[in-house]
Automatic annotation (TrEMBL):
Keywords: Membrane, Transmembrane, Transmembrane helix. It comes from the Bacteria. The chain crosses the membrane at residues 36-54. This is YoaR-like putative peptidoglycan binding domain-containing protein. Pfam families: PG_binding_4 (PF12229), VanW (PF04294). The keyword Translocase does not apply.
């Protein structure tokens, strides 16, 4: 009767309000009002029961990673998800044609956080906005409310996995072009390419993580059509035949470069502009050609410190102007000859522009010095190392430029003045042109280290060379072997750097000094750490027909194999500019004797 009384009171209040608002009762059906009131109380009652039941539970309809947890307490939901996690093999297999790519959870550090996941699930229907909360609660009674799982993984590891997939699946469209086949020009076939749809692939992978769904997935791809097809190239075949029919000759002084049909064809590029395909110069290949020729004809300006007081420069002068290939004019002349009337292209040169006032080169003080000794070297080796030092002496390296030992010294062969001396070739000690030049690169390496300049390229020797450990520990060496092995450093100061060399034949010493403008940098070099040492093999005797019978000459001394590492830290005040580590892996080396066989 209590409910009836409350309903009656509520009904009376409504009627009173209607009277006060002058609403005519005759037009209102009392039974409809009772139904509305009854419906209101029914909803209120159900809402109260709903909130009492799910006060400490996830609301109905909520799923995490495909697992239903609606109606569960925090602990129940967490336990249920952990069980699902344990029974799931988290290996995601991505497939394309016959290729399969596996992403394992342990390979990318994938770890689920079920505490955070369930906490997020409890927020559904409890955001504090009554309208949003009500919608979510009603929706949960009729459909699933999906909450993504919380997890973490290593971005870099996953990135590597996806990069491998790209490398295996992606295929560039092959453009039709002209190729040389049996000395004839033919048009190659174009081919369609394929490319992974990156957003779809990422969504597939992340979706698998979100839903704890590690079923096989297909790698999404799209077809890439070639831009240049056979029809386009056939229309240009006569033009291309004319371009490559005659050799193109480049000339500088007594140097000559002849580009044949195959080389010219390699310099041709076909480009599509709107709907028209045209013949042009392949810029990347042409730049490589310029770099190659420039390496032979370019000459850096040369300078010399003529007087100094300890580290301070008192007098400096320019002893030789530099010159370099004039890229702009050479490009125009080359194109005119290649695509027009065939003429010999003379390599144009221009002066290397430096400050007009020699004082503005900024050669004020000694930045770093390197010294090495070569006692025990044969005359040919001494000749070669001093010749190489002479040819790099006085080089001025502009601010921001990179110095190359090979470019500075030039070709290392008999034609350019180098003598025969013992070198290591294919595991044997033999006479070769230029033996001993590595003494110069090693000495320069030490100067660069002490000057605190960035090392761009440095190659350690294959084994520990006794010459380089006469005055320094193992690991402070740098090998050069043209054309592949070079020693390079960068001038990252605001002024020019002068490379100056000197040698003392009586003291068997070689010195490199680097002059420039000090900027306050300091250098800290650690002592080398030597590990994995191994003894040298048994001595090796090699017959030498140039030595009299019975004479034995030792040309290599035994050396222990070892891994050597040291680091360098360059600072400016308390701020670290950079730190680099230099590693060397020396193989064990045997003593080698030459045994005379000449009668």
């Amino acid at each position: 009767m209590k409910v009836k009384t409350k309903l009656g009171d509520f009904y009376s209040r409504i009627c009173l309000k209607l009277k006060l608002n002058k609403i005519n009762f005759k037009n209102i059906n009392p039974s409809k009002i009772r139904n509305i009131v009854l419906a209101f109380y029914t909803i209120l009652l159900l809402s109260t029961i709903y909130h009492l039941v799910y006060a400490r539970r996830v609301i109905p309809g909520v799923k995490i990673a495909g697992v239903k947890i609606g109606g569960m307490t925090f602990d129940q939901a967490k336990k249920h998800l952990e069980e699902k996690d344990k029974e799931t093999t988290k290996d995601l297999k991505l497939k394309y044609d016959e290729k399969e790519f596996l992403i394992r959870a342990e390979d990318i550090g994938l770890v689920y956080d079920w505490d955070a996941s369930v906490s997020r699930a409890f927020e559904v229907g409890r955001n504090g906005n009554i309208i949003t909360d009500t919608k979510e609660k009603i929706a949960g009674l009729m459909k699933n409310l999906v909450v993504p799982a919380s997890y973490d993984y290593d971005d870099d590891s996953l990135g590597i996995k996806l990069s491998i997939i790209r490398g295996e699946v992606n295929k560039e469209a092959k453009q039709s072009r002209v190729i040389l086949s049996d000395e004839n020009l033919v048009v190659s076939a174009s081919e369609k390419g394929r490319k992974i749809i990156e957003d779809d692939l990422y969504s597939a992978v992340i979706g698998s993580f979100d839903n704890l769904d590690f079923s096989n997935k297909n790698v999404p791809i799209k077809t890439v059509n070639p831009q240049i097809v056979e029809k386009d190239v056939n229309n240009l075949l006569n033009e291309i035949e004319k371009i490559v029919s005659k050799d193109l000759v480049l000339k500088y002084g007594d140097k000559t470069w002849t580009l044949n049909q195959e080389q010219l064809l390699d310099l041709i590029s076909l480009e599509k502009d709107e709907n028209k395909v045209k013949v042009s110069l392949n810029n990347a290949k042409f730049e490589a050609l310029i770099e190659n020729i420039g390496g032979e004809v370019n000459e850096l300006p040369r300078g010399q410190v003529t007087s100094s007081n300890e580290k301070q420069v008192l007098e400096f002068k320019i002893i030789k102007e530099g010159k370099e290939l004039d890229v702009s004019k050479f490009t125009n002349d080359f194109k005119a000859s290649m695509f027009g009337e065939r003429v010999v292209v003379n390599i144009p040169m221009s002066k290397v522009e430096g400050p007009t006032d020699k004082e503005k080169y900024g050669i004020y003080a000694l930045l770093g010095e390197g010294v090495s000794h070569y006692a025990g070297s044969i005359p040919g080796r001494i000749h070669n190392l001093t010749l190489a030092a002479e040819r790099t002496n006085g080089v001025l390296v502009a601010p921001g430029a990179t110095y190359s030992m090979n470019n500075s010294v030039g070709p290392i062969d008999a034609v350019h003045g180098f003598q025969m001396a013992y070198i290591i070739k294919e595991g044997r000690t033999v006479l070769g042109e230029g033996g001993g030049v590595c003494q110069t690169s090693t000495t320069l390496f030490r100067a660069v280290l002490n000057a605190g300049l960035p090392v761009v390229a440095r190659y350690p020797h294959a084994y520990r060379v006794g010459y380089y450990e006469q005055d320094m520990p193992a690991g402070f060496d740098a090998a050069v072997f043209q054309p592949s092995w070079d020693f390079k450093f960068k001038n990252n100061t605001s002024a020019y750097i002068l490379v100056q060399t000197s040698w003392d034949v009586d003291e068997n010493s070689l010195t490199f000094k680097l002059y420039g403008t000090p900027d306050g940098r300091t250098v800290e070099i650690t002592s080398p750490v030597i590990t994995n040492q191994s003894p040298p093999p048994e001595p090796l005797y090699q017959d030498d027909p140039t030595l009299p019978v019975g004479q034995i000459v030792q040309v290599e001394h035994p050396a222990w194999g070892a891994d050597v590492s040291f680091s360098r830290t360059v600072k400016k005040g308390d701020q670290i500019m950079f730190t680099d580590i230099f590693n060397s892996r020396f193989q064990p080396w045997r003593a080698i004797y030459l045994r005379g066989t000449k009668k």
